[in-house]
Known about the structure:
Elements: E1 17-26, E2 29-35, E3 41-44, H1 51-59, E4 78-81, E5 86-89, E6 93-100, E7 103-112, E8 121-126, E9 129-130, E10 143-146, H2 158-172, H3 176-196, H4 201-234, E11 244-249, H5 251-258, H6 261-274, H7 276-282, E12 293-298, E13 303-304, H8 310-332, E14 337-341, H9 349-361, E15 366-370, E16 384-389, E17 392-395
Parallel strand pairs: 3-15, 3-16, 10-14, 14-15
Antiparallel strand pairs: 1-2, 1-6, 4-5, 6-7, 7-8, 8-9, 11-12, 12-13, 16-17
Helix pairs in contact: 2-4, 3-4, 3-7, 4-6, 4-8
Amino acid sequence: MNEWDGNRVDAAAARVSVQRLTLTDFRCYRHLRLETDPRPVVLTGPNGAGKTNLLEAVSLLTPGRGLRRARLGDLARREPTPALEGAVPGDWAVAARLRLPTGDADVGTGMVAGDAAGRDKRAVRIDGQAAKGQAALAGLLAVQWLTPQMDRLFQDGAAERRRFLDRLVYGSDPAHAGRLSAYNHALRERARLLRDGRGDAAWLAALEETLAAKGVAVAAARHALVERLRIAAAAAGDGAFPGADLWLDGEVETWLADEPALAVEDRIRDRLAAGRPRDAEAGGAGVGPHRGDLRVRHLGKGQMAELCSTGEQKALLIAIVLAHARLVRAEQGRAPVLLLDEVAAHLDETRRRVLFDAVCALDGQSWLTGTDAAVFAPLGDRAQQFSVDDAVVTAARV
Length: 398
């Protein structure tokens, strides 16, 4: 029997964790109910067994499109239908019982039937009540993830790095999700009006007012997190994972470093108004935090992340995510839930042990996947281990 079997009530009971995960017609799962405790969750099994799908389900308990950024319809289970010789997607649902310091909470999200225009929608319910939008999830659960697709984060475009940074900001500032959603909505509306050529000046001015105010708030929240994180990430270098330097690069970010926020709002609003003809032709907006970038330097080598080797880039990513988790735990008294997809497979034994020790030291729940159960042997009974095979999840002996 481990310490969780006896329903012990101690400091660890306040950890943020997923106690129960229930999936209905989600990806490869017709129905699954998985009970977990606050320890790290290890999922092992062959490729294609459904391990990453479980991590994706947990990632959808936060705002956004999840760790794969999939379309809503692509998340539905696909039932082979001989008559159609294809796949028929349907609605799907992800539900969870969360353990929070303030008590348990029941959270659910899923796809609902499309509207008259055929657009699918994602519904969110918290403790049985419909939420106004996904932003409500940010106040409950902070989730960070690393996937093999993120190995190119420093090589890909700035948009991927902004998304990565915004997820980090959610963990420290849940209201960031609402600000970012409002900013992106105004950005899309302005672009649509300019493209269609039917927006009057007053309408455009109102949208640009929103873009200026929300844009400064978004950039300021990112800046505040990066300034704290750069201290945590610089001090994190321990030989196994490198220290990292982080900063924001962009026009609005530069203005905010030298001018009051209201002056920067005026600058953005004026630039947007003057740039309408150009933006109508090119699409988008020529100024705003949507054009900023997150830059990272490997402190041990004094080299920009994009110039480092693949292994060094992965080590940098792990170091940043761990540093952020420690920062959130220090500031809020609870660590975010970490989703680490195939992260340990390509690490040497020393780095694996350091990673496992760091994850356990966070006193938060982490979900780790891999094809080889032996890789996770150093965790012992510090973790709960499950075998996943063809969408069947069973408890594994440690």
